[in-house]
Amino acid sequence: MAIRDRIQELEDCPHPLAVKSLKYDAALGIFGLVEDTAVWSLDNQDHFEPPAAIAPIQKEIDYVVEGKNKAYMECLVSNILVCCIAEEKRAIQNGSLHKNEIIGHYVEPARLSLRFETELSCPVKYKYEDHMLSGVPDYVLWYNTKASMSTNLVVVEAKGGEPAFGEAGSQVVAYMGN
Questions:
Q1: Rounded to an integer, what distance in angstroms lies between the CA atom of residue 107 and that of residue 103?
Q2: Is 6 part of any domain?
Q3: What sign does the dihedral 30-33-34-40 (CA atoms) show?
Q4: Which of 6, 39, 126, 127 has its CA 20 to 30 A from that of 108?
Q5: Number of structural domains, the chain?
Q6: What pTM did the predictor assign?
Q7: Which residues contact residue 53 at a Cβ distance below 8 angstroms, ignoring those fewer than 6 apart?
């Protein structure tokens, strides 16, 4: 490839844009989203019993770990996600149905998949220019097939301590917009 062709190829590529570099409002703006504060308050009907496997593992983690930082939070989130997804997969194998209190009838368990630190990217317009938004969230979950992943994606960023929602929120919005 000639140097001139390579230069043209690089000029045609969108500017890189790291998910972690975005502020919350910018992440909302890129995808034309508006914050809905009602989403963040859960009613009793939104609370579910956690899988039984979570509590004993959590006890062990708290017994041996000192300090609550990002790594501790990742350990907790990993424990919760793995136990919940394992319970769903067992329910599928057993042919079990779940009672959904909101819609009032039984539904099949979700066919969930989980990946750790998976690179995600998508082209976006930011400040009137083409960019390639990219990052590596801690967890990526989806249901059904990888082919339909883009419409069924949930991304989780574990944060240590109690940071402002803006840092984690902007990353989640940017990944979800992907």
A1: 9
A2: no
A3: negative
A4: 39
A5: 1
A6: 0.65
A7: 83, 86, 87
